[in-house]
Design brief:
By secondary structure, this protein is mainly α. The chain is built from seven helices and no strands. The model is unreliable at 17-23 (pLDDT under 50).
Length: 237
């Protein structure tokens, strides 16, 4: 091998090594928030916004279906009451879809919260410590292997507490009014659906309501990052 070819080989090895390490130092603290970190943060905000819009689309369709069901159910006393129960079941389907989307949304929001807590908050107030000293390693691992961070039950609980419990409550109250105020018979008799006795129908509805409340409010360790679980008011000093 000639000396010239040896030099070319060494130069090629050096180039390969540099390419392998191209990410090292890219996000060092010396670059500040005006460098690559800002572009990374902007990209995560965009992804989070896109998934937030997908959640809103599901909620909008749920409200539209609920309004249509209520309009038809109360448009005539001859319309069957169980159309409201069908509306409740349809909202359950929307809840399941929205919970799945929420789990995807949480992937991007958790990254945004990591950057906000450990980069921007510290940059604005340098006297504070980072929220997690190992945030760079964990964020890097999450970029290498993206994972869903919350369970399906927790996602359902979040959407119930935020959106769907009020919607279910409206339909439930409408159904109770429909089986009590629009028929001279007793509520249990009116609640019957075909050959299914009213007692069984009421029992199923009650079980569904209790199950939804249990999922929404049972004690648990919440894993969603940045979710406001209660009203927090910051007093101006």
């Amino acid at each position: 091998m000639t000396e010239e070819s040896g030099d070319d080989a060494r130069a090629g090895d050096a180039t390969d090594a540099a390419n392998r390490d191209v990410g090292k130092g890219l996000l060092d603290e010396e670059m500040g928030p005006s460098g690559a970190m800002a572009h990374l943060y902007r990209g995560e905000i965009h992804r989070m916004k896109y998934w937030r819009e997908r959640l809103d689309e599901t909620t909008n369709w749920a409200v539209i279906v609920m309004a249509a069901v209520l309009t038809w159910a109360f448009s005539s006393p001859d319309n069957p009451h169980y159309i409201v129960l069908i509306g409740i079941a349809t909202l359950g389907v929307f809840l399941t879809v929205e919970a799945r989307r929420y789990r995807g949304y949480d992937i991007w929001r958790s990254r945004v919260r990591t950057l906000q807590e450990n980069v921007w908050a510290v940059g604005l107030d340098p006297e504070t410590e980072v929220a997690n000293p190992e945030w760079r390693e964990r964020l890097g691992a999450d970029y290498r292997t993206p994972t869903i961070k919350i369970t399906a039950e927790e996602a359902i609980a979040h959407r119930l507490r935020r959106i769907y419990l009020p919607l279910f409550t409206v339909l439930l109250v409408a159904w109770l009014v429909r089986i009590t105020a629009f028929s001279p018979e007793s509520a249990l008799d009116t609640a019957a659906v075909g050959v299914i006795p009213g007692t069984l129908v009421v029992a199923v509805v009650a079980t569904f309501v209790l199950g939804a409340l249990a999922v929404a409010f049972r004690p648990r360790t919440w894993h969603a990052r940045g979710e406001l679980l209660e009203e927090r008011l910051r007093k101006e000093e």
